[in-house]
Amino acid sequence: MLHFFARQLLDFYELRRSVHEELVFTANIGDAHTVGFTAAQDDLRRLSAKIDALDQSLSFASRSFLHWRGYDLANAAGGLRGLSNNIGRAGYNKAYSRFEVQTGLRLPADDTAERLERLRQAEERRENREE
Asked: What is the residue-wise DSSP string for the chain?
């Protein structure tokens, strides 16, 4: 029983490390014409699928432990999907997706909730002026 619990946690922490590495590696990917753009999208989606699969297959004890430690795998998986869709863009959606991944996996966050809110409001004002 202990081996089963420990194996699931080890799998989680290895996947968490891979996600952190990918976030650092893809932080400055430009638009769709940038070398590595498609690979970055695919890698982020694959990591999202792996986190989602792990989340669905965790035992009750492992899921409870990770929740108790403050991890939110569903938000992290959703954030990775969002980031893969917004990788070539700047602004709120990309920043929010990264923030969801970082907070869901308790990684160092690039932004704060307050800064994201200011960014969202600024984009909203800019869109309203364009209309």
From this structure: -HHHHHHHHHHHHHHHHHHHHHHHHTTT--STTSTTHHHHHHHHHHHHHHHHHHHHH--HHHHHHHHHTT--HHHHHHHHHHHHHHTT--SHHHHHHHHHHHHHTTPPPSS-HHHHHHHHHHHHHHHHHH-
- Tell me: pLDDT of 32 over 70: no
Using CA atoms, how far residue 87 sits from 31, 58, 121, in Å, is: 8, 29, 21
Residue 15 to residue 10: CA distance in whole angstroms? 9
* Residue 129 pLDDT class (50, 70, 90 cuts): confident
Q: Please give the torsion angle defined by the CA atoms of residues 83, 84, 89 and 93, in that order, rounded to the nearest 10 degrees.
A: -30
The domain in which residue 73 lies consists of 2-130
**Total residue count of the chain as it appears in this document:** 131
Q: How many domains does the chain have?
A: 1
